[in-house]
Write a structure and sequence with these properties.
- This is HlyC/CorC family transporter.
- GO terms for molecular function: flavin adenine dinucleotide binding.
- It is found in: Cell membrane.
- It contains 17 helices and 12 strands.
- By secondary structure, it is α+β, with helices and mostly antiparallel strands.
- The strands form 3 sheets. It has a 5-stranded antiparallel β-sheet with strand order 8-9-12-11-10. A 4-stranded mixed β-sheet has the order 1-7-6-5. A 3-stranded mixed β-sheet has the order 2-3-4.
- Helix 10 links the parallel strand 2 and strand 3.
- Helix 4 runs antiparallel to helix 5.
- The longest helix is centred in the first third of the chain and has 37 residues.
């Protein structure tokens, strides 16, 4: 009887863990293939809460029975042994037998009735579920009235305590939990860095807007209806693109796009017959929604419109896919400069089009990106003189942001100089943060300080050179 009760306890424990761990899709496939045991397992998984309650009831009954029957049975088995050893004190015999029986029953219950079946179910959930399915269905149907009453009483008690009853099906992982699981799996070598990056990109994908991935208006290569055919052909051949937007007069009046194949097949044809319709969407649209729209429209290019009705830029299907799989280079693409380059131990050169959110994540900053998307736009709004010139700088959060390169009146590269460690800092500078007070002196306007203490009087370029040399 003791062995039977321990075995029953282990059976219900194994069934419980197997139900939680098993893959529903795998069971559904086997059930559709005609497996009866898989059909029973599928019914368990589809009614998970009820069958988990049945497992708990079975475990409780087996444990209570083991304590009620097992301990006295083992103790009665040990008493004759003590008598054979010459023990005559009945109190001592009873106490010793009960103590030994308690230890034996506890060990059997934990090892055979709990730990071993749990490990087996976690290791092979599918096999265990298939074996346990039919008996569990029979037990559930037999004990259904008791399970229904006990569940109802438990839920009623929770409602009295103003706690909403929970379901095992509600225990889905949040995005942050999945990210943590993926990182832990990567640390343990179960998935590689590429797979981890893909998972992160997929989560970011749903929050990314078209404005963040678009080809800006200033970089759009367009064909025009008011210029000669020869000029448009030259633009198309030099641009090395597949699709070109067609404009009337300016980029705010895009009437469609031309595929380069159509243009090459019929170079003398009327443009109107070659122009294909282009979809126009707001620049704030999520790229996940835009991708669905482009799939339905069977197009690979879309025009983005700003709040004033003007053209903000273009988005291609390739731009959207690159947010998941990374940069896609073809045989005509020039090798692009890395988005982030380390120019020294404390100096970094980054692309001006890098999103502020990505800069914050990479460098630990807290730059405000409510009004600007890119680090180049953020710096552009804070420099004193326009248009931006190489060498102009802004101090923020203890670091210096310098205009490193410009292109068509925009900032194409930004250099970030991070503060030097205490041991490497220049004597005349106590801190690289803005408006740092001089030790031992009251807060006063910069012009009241001595030249050696007032780092504002030293040219920014000289400071940058010193820092770069120190970091090199």
């Amino acid at each position: 009887m003791v062995v039977l009760l321990v075995g029953l306890n282990g059976f219900f424990v194994a069934a419980e863990f197997a139900m939680v761990r098993i893959r529903e899709s795998r069971i559904a496939t086997l059930a559709d293939a005609g497996s009866k045991r898989a059909g029973f397992a599928k019914s368990m998984v589809n009614n998970l809460d009820a069958y988990l309650s049945a497992c708990q009831l079975g475990i409780t009954l087996a444990s209570l029975g083991l304590g009620w029957i097992g301990e006295p049975a083992v103790a009665s088995f040990l008493r004759p042994l003590f008598h054979a050893l010459g023990w005559t004190n009945e109190v001592a015999i009873h106490g010793t037998a009960v103590a030994i029986a308690f230890v034996l029953i506890t060990v059997l219950h934990i090892v055979i009735g709990e730990l071993a079946p749990k490990s087996m179910a976690i290791r092979k959930p599918e096999s265990v579920a298939m074996i346990a399915a039919a008996p569990m269905v029979l037990f559930y149907k037999t004990m259904f009235p008791f399970i229904w009453v006990l569940n109802g009483m438990a839920n009623a008690l929770l409602r009295v305590l103003k706690i909403e009853p929970a379901s095992e099906l509600d225990s889905a992982h949040t995005e942050e939990e999945i990210r943590i699981l993926v990182k832990e799996s990567n640390k343990n070598g179960l998935i590689d860095n590429t797979e981890m990056a893909l998972v992160d990109n997929i989560f970011e994908f749903a929050d990314t807007t078209a404005r963040e991935v678009m080809i800006p208006r200033t970089e759009m290569i367009c064909l025009y209806t008011n210029v000669s055919r020869e000029e448009n052909l030259e633009t198309a051949y030099d641009g090395m693109r597949t699709r070109y937007p067609v404009c009337e007069q300016d980029k705010d009046h895009i009437i469609g796009f031309i595929h380069i194949k159509d243009l090459m097949r019929s170079p003398e044809a009327d443009y109107d017959s070659l122009i294909r319709p282009i979809i126009a969407v707001p620049e704030s649209i999520r790229i996940s929604e835009l991708m669905k729209l482009m799939q339905r429209s069977r197009t690979q290019i879309a025009m983005l419109v700003d709040e004033y009705g003007g053209t903000a830029g273009l988005v291609t299907l390739e731009d959207i896919m690159e947010e998941i799989v990374g940069e896609i280079q073809d045989e005509f693409d020039e090798e692009e400069r890395p988005e982030t380059e380390q120019a020294g131990e404390f100096s970094y050169s980054i692309d001006g089009m890098m999103l502020i959110e990505d800069v914050n994540n990479q460098f630990g900053f807290e730059l405000n990106f409510d009004d600007y998307d890119t680090i180049g736009g953020w710096l552009y709004a804070r420099i004193d003189e326009l248009p931006p010139q190489k060498g102009q700088s802004v101090d923020h959060e203890g670091c210096t942001f310098i205009v490193d390169e410009t292109e068509q009146k925009r900032i194409s590269r930004v250099r970030i100089l991070k503060p030097l460690p205490e041991a490497d800092r220049m004597p005349e500078r106590e801190d690289c943060a803005e408006d740092a007070p001089v030790d031992g002196a009251p807060d006063a306007p910069n012009e009241a300080r001595e030249p050696e203490d007032n780092f504002e009087t030293e040219p920014v370029a000289a400071l940058a050179a010193k820092r770069i040399e120190a970091g090199a």
